[in-house]
Hints:
This protein is of the alpha/beta class and 244 residues long. It has one domain (28-37, 47-240): Vaccinia Virus protein VP39 (Rossmann fold, 3-Layer(aba) Sandwich), CATH 3.40.50.150. The protein is built from eight helices and seven strands; from the N terminus they run ααβαβαβαβαβααββ. It has helices at 21-24, 28-37, 62-74, 89-98, 117-127, 143-165, 176-188, 205-218, and strands at 51-56, 80-86, 105-109, 134-140, 166-172, 222-229, 235-240.
Amino acid sequence: MSExxxxxxxxxxxxxxxxxxxxxxxxxxxxxLLQSENxxxxxxxxxxxxxxxxxIGCNTGELTEALxxxxxxxxxxxxLDILGIDLDPTLIDRAREKYINKDDLTFKCADIxxxxxxxxxIYPFLCSRGLKSFDxxxxxxxxxxxHLNAGDIGLERFFQKCSMLGLYLILEPQPWKCYxxxxxxxxxxxxxxxxxxxxxxxxxxxxxxxxxxxxxxKNGFKTIKHFGKTEWKRSVILYGKDSS
Length: 244
């Protein structure tokens, strides 16, 4: 599968906000990995209240909904409440239209790195449910876009917020070759380069893996399970924090 075919307007999707993303990288690619290893067997979540999740970079919501359906299938007695956020209002509008009848799926337009997002979007969602944090935060194929646009410091801030907001983190980081593809796409479409990429402390897969390991650990996350790789050769990893 060629990532260069993700969208006819790929050059304008500077933040990974491809309008037809799930036509090219279906949510089922990730869910199958979680399903094969039974995600819930690796996490300790209370059965006497809702499992509340935050999906960052939800796009048009297909993967958010697929995760919801999968978790319900894992345990029909558990109740779920998922907030999906994305910085693209068009994508959020589509998600809302598509899942208008899903009361336990909420979609909001918000940028996780924006200083106003916690107070304007995330904390009100949690407070309305009598909570201070999420059980789980999911980040599927968004870390590269944060890294390219906000730099090493921005990626560190991102993981700091994930640590503040959730006990568990599911991460699907793009490999280094995707960074190269994204940069090349900007050049082909005569778009501004990712200036932050020039400031990275390294420029290969070994450095990138080590950097992500370093900053997840720094923010209290320990690797619990590698679920394998998707058809696009992207790892899906479960991290957890000490809840004591």
